[in-house]
Automatic annotation (TrEMBL):
Keywords: Isopeptide bond, Ubl conjugation. Residues 42-58 have a biased composition (Low complexity). PROSITE patterns: CULLIN_2 (PS50069). Residues 14-60 are annotated as: Disordered. This is Cullin family-domain-containing protein. It comes from Lentinula lateritia.
Amino acid sequence: MNVYTLLELPKSSKGFSSISQSNGPRSGAQLRKVARTDADLDSASASRSTGVTSGSSRIQISGEGFRPSVLPDPFYSIRHNISVILTPFKQPSLIESYEAVSLRARYIVCVDGKGEGLYNLLKKELEVCMKDKVLESLMKDGEWISFMGRMCDWFHGAVGLLQSLLSPLDQAYVPTVKGTRSINALAYDIFNDRIFGHAGVSKQLRENLSTWIAADRQNSSGERASRSSVAHLLRHFIAHDVYFGSSQYEQYLLTSTEEYYVALVATLNHDMYDDPSAFFEIAYDLIEAEVERAEEVFPPQSRQSIKETTIRALFILPKVAGADNFNDNWLDRLKWLATPETVKAYVTSNRVPTMGKMYHLLSTLSSVSGSRAPLKVLSNAWKVYIHVFTSTGSAAPDLEEKMVPNLLKFREQAEGIIDVAFISKETNKRDGDFSQALSDGFISGFKTRRVKPAEMLAKYLDGMMRKGQAKFFESLSKSNSADGDAIAGATQNAQDTLFHSHLLQVLGLYRFSEDKDVFRTFYHRQLTKRLLLGRSASSDAEVAMLRMLKEQYDSEFDMGETMFKDLALSTELMNEFRNHRLVNGMSDDNLDVRVLQRSAWPFDVSKKQILIPDEMEQQLSNFATFYHNKHGNRTLDWDHALGTMSLKTRFRSPGKDVVEKELSVSLYQGIILLMFQEKNKISFLEIRDVQHSIDDDDLRRTLQSLACGKKKLLLKEPPGRDVHDGDTFLFNDKFVLSEEGKKAGYKIHVNSIQAKVSVKESATTNRHIQEDRKHLLDAAIVRIMKAKKQLEYEQLKSQTIEAVKRHFAPEVEEIKSRVEALVEQEYLERAERVPGQKPMFKYVA
């Protein structure tokens, strides 16, 4: 042992005391070790005298002929130790301690200057180990996955030990020689080259991994490595840098996964072609199982790739060989899977969460493909489903009254489906495409049904705005038990809030209608009836409603102001009329007249006047005289179609006391009831002969309201819902004994036909709307051509659509027809056609 070795020992060693007297000189002159202190260090001398050591001591080595490289064959023992360490699965039993091996390495590198020799020795031993030990062991073992994992564990430990014992190589030799790798890099490169780079090993590993995954997918009962063993091996792949990359194990596993599911889905698609919903359920379960396996086996970096590969293989048609992008028909499988029919099946069978699963899978596909095309397939199916229901639901004439309630319920359901199934994971908000698809589906559905949705919305709002909010809530409760429960336990303020909320829901449907003019016209007519028949909840509510319609929904909704002004002036006029009668000593006859401007109210005055009793005729004459004295230049035209009256009626039931009731009826109903004062039984033909000025349809419906409704003031023979020419009517003295009569108070209101829109009135109104549209189109076309002087037909068409879109969305054929009509009327003329030029029109001044 030499002094350098002694000086390298740690503080816990015996130091110089370990040198025995028998140790002689190895070569040259005898070495003399003299320990002495500097004469000038008084503190050291003082400590010697007291036996206490303090401070530092200087040691000087003297002697001649000393050479560091006096050890015979310094690589012999270290070669043996490296070979022992590189023996797989054996506890290293070295011929000297780890400390001695480390010191020997330091001596060779730092003192003897033979770092290159030690480095080459290590490299050679690693090569021999890979070839004669590791590779041979692998080829003998049949269970590759677990054995390779254990082999990598051993190799990792062996390399770590070599790094520790031969650290002088990494510290002193490798940094000084350019291009030299560290011990760890050298060992792993040789392992990768000789083991993972070996064709036989690579083949066996890939085949064993494929076999294991196939058995795990099929849940085979045969013996196989555990999932943890496979995960352990893949972690070693990552450590050896052979997992990631285009030609590495990850890519091989992804490719084999894709091939497996492509083959599987071809079989499933063939067997389940008629049941796409069942196919999706199976495919989703397969994806869930693959994701679960990936969570347990694959590294985190690969899990999303495994999921995306599985989804792509199951739902997208494979690429054509050699193609860089997807096929033109790559979405065909999705189009087969996500159809309006499957969407409907999911909704009707209450499987909305399943549709949410489909959305998230297609969202993943959109991310993989870099296109929203997969999600567009589902959103288009959703749109068509909305369109089909909106355009066909409650389409039958006898179901039209239920159209709006059904649409409200359907829209609420559809909005709920979006909140459950179509929420983006990125934003945690609704997917805008599906909200837009909902709107587009309603708009196209409304357009398919033409003017009917706008008409029915106006009628439904009329029912809401009539006097008697309680009746509206009652009907709402019958159609929806949940709403009924909410209304029953609600306070007045809560009911007002609920009413307003429902009103906004109805107006939300109005936004989907392009037939603004239809809604405007029918709402205007219904508003007129509510105001004149006294059926409105309140004038303030009506004014607020009109203001909201104009400000938030339709800027052209400007009717109403003149109507309310007429009503206010009529109230003042009637007060003056009553005062006039009192001043002149005339009795109050309870007459109430509404004087209206014809231009502000949507009704034509009937040229025929109904026959009314003389007393009523005299009252009207008195008012006409008063009015003409006040406004001599104005003309009064009486319109009794929307008139009302009150009758005091005495019911004389046999054997019962006379019961007096006050009947609130329309003027038509009232004059028919007055006919029964003189005669108890009258035929339909007699009534028609007397009241021949009343339209036949109105007369029949008036008699229906009196004899066929809930409150049967008349009895019809024979009984039935319709009125025929041979029917006979009798006054019902026993009405007060009926269930409805008993429930009624002193004042009985009988629903009038005038308050509702008849089929004939609806058809007439729609016919007028179509005529108005023609005039509106004509005016728009002439206005455009007057400004432009000359336009191509396509430009004229687009500008005309833009000009009238606040009123309605015209069909192309309508525009074409009006252009032709204006050419015939010489407002426009065709420009001379130049070959290759589109049709052109000129304005004729």
